[in-house]
Amino acid sequence: MNKKIMTGAIIMASTVVLSVSGIAFADRDEYHTDSYSMYKRSSTVTAVNNKLYTTECAACHFAYQPGWLPARSWKKMMQNLDDHFGENAELDQKTNDLLTQYLVAESADVKPHRKSHKVLRSIRAGATPQRISTLPYMLRKHDEIPARLITGNAKVGSAANCIACHTGASEGQFNEHGVKIPGYGPWED
Ligand code: HEC
Ligand code: HEC
Description:
This protein has helices at residues 3-24, 51-57, 71-79, 93-105, 114-122, 136-141, 162-165, and strands at 180-181, 185-186. It is mostly helical. The chain folds into 2 domains: 1-128, no CATH class; 142-189, no CATH class.
């Protein structure tokens, strides 16, 4: 086998492994087999419990839980706060260090929550996403919601406005039962 074919074979083999584990991980939040007990602790992400974080990072938007992105994403974001989605969100070095420490310690690849694990699995190898709302996992979870209820909805505005629809978002609760879309109501599948 030449190197190219070899690499292709490895990629294909890992895709098969990933999709098989995807089936095993089917969306049943209440039930887990022992082999996944590592993810048993919680089916959600850890709620934010850091005052510095809510003060500095939730002035302009929802206090996104660190468990929605891998450590490398948070590190990159914290190094580029002078150009943060078109805004200047720069912090002094000490505050930046403290918040980076917090974000990394609670990140998807450090805290093994099931939902964090699903997020990680959906990210392309080597990618360092900066948005939670456009992670493949999030796009998949929200693909049945028409745009008029998100971007076309003055009370929501953007898919990044989690708290507009997820009434339990601040507690880290995102299951569909807690959804109430402004101007629309609860979500029935
Ligand atoms: C000055 C305002 C401001 C501050 C302060 C701020 N942000 Fe943001 N942030 C934004 C804007 C604007 C966006 C883009 C929102 C959108 O597209 O709906 C954004 C987007 C994000 C997103 C991506 C949302 C998505 O699409 O999933 C993350 C994650 C994020 N911010 C984290 C942080 C963190 C961590 C801090 C603190 C270090 C922070 N932000 C502080 C303005 C701010
Ligand atoms: C316009 C309203 C709306 C916004 C904004 C929104 N969501 Fe959702 N979300 C929903 C609805 C509705 C569902 C259920 C979809 C379904 O079951 O078909 C859902 C499902 C989910 C799920 C899957 C829950 C499960 O148990 O399977 C997660 C996780 C989630 N959202 C996280 C987020 C995060 C994080 C944000 C912000 C970055 C966000 N959502 C923004 C409406 C929204």
